[in-house]
């Protein structure tokens, strides 16, 4: 087994698993997931359902652009967003491109439900190919949204690595249940206000998501 | 928006003059000074970008309820000619393909229905799956999904959801032709298998309303509307399937534009020539998405009837009309005196055919198409009628339009307080998301009265009835 630069153990052409698995008592396979798409290829995208949670992401603390809290009940993390008339602008920042993408995913899913409450009971693995880092952000976020909806899940933790055009990611979370507070559905990530930039030591990824 | 940069052509019509060297088609904005003044400058930027796209017929336009969107502005209308290199844009349709409003008229009067509104609200909330993460009662297999995508509301009626009489009053008679189910990804179909008959979230709603005021008695009579009557509006779209089609094609069309040498002022306009393989592929998928939305609203209309008859056994709910406001449709319009076949994008804009249009049901042929302008849960909505001389490719407003961002709304309102305040006003809210309620606070929207009035004064459509909400199921 080879350890990739992202700290993940590569198990095969599709599966990725945390190098240091975080064992939780609630870990389980995704119920209701069709066996025919538990491991399948959709174009250049491959998705694997695994029964072990991934490592929590390494999102660095960031300042608050604007907090999207309704009262105090939604998110406790100061996730950054930017203004948009009808929809929501999400921002992800991190010391690397991958961490910035992970933070952007957190910002997206925090619109859907408070992330603190999401248990990493199952993990979905995602692969795709894209040379353009801006389009890669949109593809990453939309693959996560698509898989979450398809599986009836919500994700709270994310991990991503990439080498050249190849992106390998994981998201862990759980099926919707009554303990999860309902926020707002995110329909998809758009190309509006889309940018992926490095400023000094910080990478920043942003786009508008349709809600 | 700074009005100094606009040229006022008529009391409710403005243009954006071209700067020296600027190569684009005409930009027209319908609205009053206060409405335009309240719009973000991004609206102007986005519609000016649309005016740069190839094959545009006439002007790129915004409706009085326009606001900053993604791709096209919301409230944006633009028609393209395939024979002149015209394009189809996923950003001109949106993720929620064929999002729209099903309007049902009832035989109930508000005075007789009022005592049972609490029970009705609870039963509607139980029967109508709403909100993020909620699945519907139906679970469809791949074959059934393909039938939905091909047959639209007809499929739903065949399954016992509603009746054939509904179909007459749905755009395209309930089935959009040209749907290519093979162009819809497997993931899109999988996303939809549990989402048929669901309301969704965000600005989607099911409202029980009453007709507070009639403006146009002839049109109201044709629409079967009278003061005091209970009416139901169901606002939703093509759910996960439509969202995934938008997702699948947004990046694909962005790349196609680059490959085909289309110079986009902004990548968010992701588009391809109508006659290109990519363009044709998207159109086939989009048409399938439209059918999904039509079937979804048909199922929801049926579930609404089921809920009503539990509370009011005498209730009869008929489809007044079903309008879509996120589409691109092939229509014939006159441009510069010539009749042309055009692909009309309406992104957050309602089709508003005028009297005599052959696509209207016979019942409405003399008065024009019903146009539903949805307002906020605390204010109200309007039903208008299309005008024969509509100057905007037979288009009109679709809603009140946001005045404040979601962030501003969250900072200003709390969902629980809003629900309580609205209850004191006699408006019952049922929701699983207090955050959603806060984001959709009545104060976050423009003055729907003003939008409807200006829509009429601009000659886009004329007011027929004002509807006041009493019960609202929020997604």
Q: Level of helix content of chain B?
A: 25-40%
Q: What is the radius of gyration of chain B computed over CA atoms, rounded to a whole number of angstroms? A: 21 Å
What fraction of residues of chain B sit in β-strands? 25-35%
Which residues of chain B sit in consecutive blocks of at least 5 with pLDDT less than 50?
none
Task: Work out the radius of gyration of chain A.
Answer: 16 Å
Low-confidence stretches of chain A: 1-64, 71-77
Determine the N-to-C terminus distance of chain A. 41 Å
- Content-based structural category of chain A: alpha+beta
Put simply, the count of helices of chain A is 3
Count of alpha/pi helices of chain B: 15
How does the major sheet of chain A shape up? 5 strands, antiparallel
Q: For the largest sheet of chain A, list the strands in their spatial order.
A: 3-4-7-9-8
Query: Proportion of β residues of chain A?
Result: 25-35%
The helix/strand order of chain A is EEHEEEEHEHEEEEE
Quote the average pLDDT of chain A.
Answer: 72
- Large-scale geometry of chain A: globular
Q: How would you briefly describe this protein structure?
A:
The complex is a heterodimer of chains A (211) and B (475). Chain A has 211 residues and is α+β, with helices and mostly antiparallel strands.
Structure description:
The complex is a heterodimer of chains A (211) and B (475). With 211 residues, chain A is of the alpha+beta class. Chain A contains three helices and twelve strands, in the order ββαββββαβαβββββ. Helices cover 18% and strands 33% of the residues of chain A. A five-stranded antiparallel β-sheet of chain A has the order 3-4-7-9-8. In chain A, strand 3 and strand 4 form a beta hairpin. Chain B is α+β, with helices and mostly antiparallel strands and 475 residues long. The longest helix of chain B has 35 residues. The chains are: A alpha+beta (211), B alpha+beta (475).
């Amino acid at each position: 087994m080879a350890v990739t630069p992202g700290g993940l153990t590569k198990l095969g052409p599709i599966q990725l698993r945390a190098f240091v698995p975080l064992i939780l008592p609630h870990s389980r396979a995704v119920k209701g997931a069709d066996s025919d798409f538990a491991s399948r290829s959709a174009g250049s995208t491959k998705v694997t359902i695994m029964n072990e949670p991934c490592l929590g992401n390494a999102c660095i603390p960031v300042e608050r652009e604007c907090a999207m809290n309704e009262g105090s009940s939604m998110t406790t993390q100061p996730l950054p967003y930017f203004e948009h008339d009808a929809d929501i602008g999400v921002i992800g920042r991190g010391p690397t491109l991958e961490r910035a993408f992970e933070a952007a995913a957190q910002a997206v899913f925090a619109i859907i439900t408070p992330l603190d409450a999401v248990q990493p009971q199952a993990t979905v693995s995602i692969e795709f190919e894209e040379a353009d880092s801006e389009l890669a952000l949109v593809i990453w976020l939309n693959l996560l949204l698509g898989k979450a909806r398809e599986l009836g899940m919500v994700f709270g933790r994310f991990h991503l690595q990439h080498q050249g055009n190849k992106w390998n990611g994981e998201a862990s979370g759980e099926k919707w249940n009554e303990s999860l507070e309902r926020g707002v559905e995110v329909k998809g990530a758009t190309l509006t206000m889309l940018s992926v930039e490095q400023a000094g030591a910080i990478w920043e990824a942003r786009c508008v998501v349709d809600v | 928006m700074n009005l100094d940069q606009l040229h006022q052509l008529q009391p409710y019509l403005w243009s954006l003059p071209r700067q020296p060297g600027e190569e684009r088609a005409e930009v027209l904005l319908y609205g009053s000074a206060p409405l335009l003044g309240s719009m973000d400058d991004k609206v102007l930027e986005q519609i000016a970008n649309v005016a740069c796209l190839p094959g545009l017929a006439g002007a790129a336009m915004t409706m009085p309820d326009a606001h900053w969107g993604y791709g096209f502005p919301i409230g944006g209308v633009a028609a393209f000619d395939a024979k002149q290199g015209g394009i189809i844009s996923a950003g001109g349709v949106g993720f929620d393909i064929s999002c729209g409003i099903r309007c049902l008229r009832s035989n109930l009067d508000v005075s007789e229905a009022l005592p049972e509104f609490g029970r009705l609200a609870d039963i509607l909330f139980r029967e109508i799956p709403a909100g993020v993460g909620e699945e519907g009662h139906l679970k469809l297999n791949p074959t059934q999904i393909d039938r939905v995508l091909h047959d639209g509301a007809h499929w739903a009626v065949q399954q016992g959801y509603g009746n054939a009489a509904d179909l007459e009053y749905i755009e395209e008679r309930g089935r959009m032709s040209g749907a290519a189910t093979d162009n819809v990804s497997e993931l899109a179909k999988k996303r939809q298998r549990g989402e048929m008959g669901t309301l969704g979230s965000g600005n989607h709603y099911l409202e029980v309303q009453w007709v507070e005021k009639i403006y146009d008695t002839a049109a109201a009579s044709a629409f079967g509307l009278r003061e005091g009557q209970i009416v139901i509006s169901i606002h939703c779209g093509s759910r996960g399937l439509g969202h995934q089609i938008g997702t699948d094609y947004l990046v694909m069309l962005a790349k196609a534009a680059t490959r085909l040498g289309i110079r986009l002022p902004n990548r968010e306009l992701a588009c391809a020539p109508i006659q290109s393989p990519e363009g044709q592929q998207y159109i086939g998928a989009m048409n399938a998405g439209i059918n999904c939305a039509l079937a979804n609203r048909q199922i929801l209309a049926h579930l609404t009837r089921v809920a009503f008859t539990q509370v009011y056994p005498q209730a009869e709910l008929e489809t007044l009309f079903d309008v879509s406001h996120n589409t691109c449709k092939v229509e014939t319009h006159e441009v510069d005196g010539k009749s042309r076949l055009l692909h009309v994008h309406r992104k957050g804009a309602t089709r508003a055919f005028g009297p005599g249009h052959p696509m209207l049901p016979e019942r409405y042929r003399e008065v024009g198409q019903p146009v539903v302008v949805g307002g906020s849960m605390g204010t109200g909505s309007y039903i208008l009628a299309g005008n024969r001389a509509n100057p905007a490719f037979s288009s009109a407003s679709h809603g009140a339009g946001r005045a404040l961002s979601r962030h501003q709304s969250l900072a200003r309102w709390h969902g629980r307080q809003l629900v309580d305040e609205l209850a004191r006003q006699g408006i019952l809210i049922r929701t699983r998301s207090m955050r959603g309620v806060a984001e959709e606070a009545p104060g976050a929207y423009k003055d729907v009265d003003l939008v409807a009035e200006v829509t009429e004064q601009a000659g886009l459509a004329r007011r027929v009835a004002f509807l006041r909400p009493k019960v609202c199921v929020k997604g």
